[in-house]
Amino acid sequence: MAVMRKSSIVSFFVYLISLLPFWVLYAFSNVLYLLLYYVIGYRKAVVYENLRNAFPEKTDSERRQIARKFYRFLPDLIVEAVKMRSISAEAVEKRIVIHQKEELERHFRAGKGVIGVTAHYANWELGIHRLSLLTENPVLIIYKPLHNQTVDLIYNAIRGRFGATMVPMKQTLRKIIAHRQQPHISIFVADQTPMYKDSNYFIPFLNQDTLVYTGAEKIAKMTNFPVVFCHIDRVRRGHYSCTFTTLVENPAEVPGHGITDIHNKFTEDIIRRKPEWWLWSHRRWKRKPKP
């Protein structure tokens, strides 16, 4: 009860801030960038270590340029997440342009569910709103609950404003099975860092051995639902595109960890093309292969 009361109070203040126009929020973002990059140095050691390991072929100057662009984008991501609390459906549709919508529609017309995969790239959070408005079919967002219950409740309430259903990882299979008789899409943010107990599969990713989740692959094989990548890209400040690409039509036919390899390679290619929009402050490589 105390958590619910606290989340309601905080959510109200987030709502008040979200009513500010974008130009005011971006003015605040400009100040926040200076604080994060030049004053606080938010996770700079993590960001630069990640960039050095991911791009050893680049010069220090090139990596610093990527880092500055990332830090310039991060405050925008924060204020845009706040704006999600009150943004209108019309504004969401204006700010994320959809490409290759037919990749979803043809699977839905065939009566299939879709295993959607995406990454912590560009504004994946706003992408939840856009996907919810794109289809009348159920949209399931598979997420890893935060340790802070208050923040978790606030985030999930915001994410579900336009009808998305938030599904904790441990309930994924049960929820997808409950929807198996109707077209729907389940979205997995596939570049999170699993615990050792949740996965033992390492892949080469951005020049490093990387522990990855295999849950999307397991469920895709079990259901034989097609695997579709949702690539959200930044076009300009506050504006994005979302492109749907079917990576695997018949998952049951793909041997081993082929599906996990495919969607992670797709993610890596996106990051290498425009690295500044990925979440470099995330401690992605804190898990190491056991000897």
Automatic annotation (TrEMBL):
One of its GO terms (molecular function) is acyltransferase activity. It holds the Pfam family Lip_A_acyltrans. GO terms for biological process: glycolipid biosynthetic process. InterPro entries: LipA_acyltrans. GO terms for cellular component: plasma membrane. This is KDO2-lipid IV(A) lauroyltransferase. Keywords: Acyltransferase, Cell inner membrane, Cell membrane, Membrane, Transferase, Transmembrane, Transmembrane helix. The keyword Aminoacyl-tRNA synthetase does not apply. It comes from Parapedobacter luteus. It is found in: Cell inner membrane. The chain crosses the membrane at residues 12-40. It comes from the Bacteria.
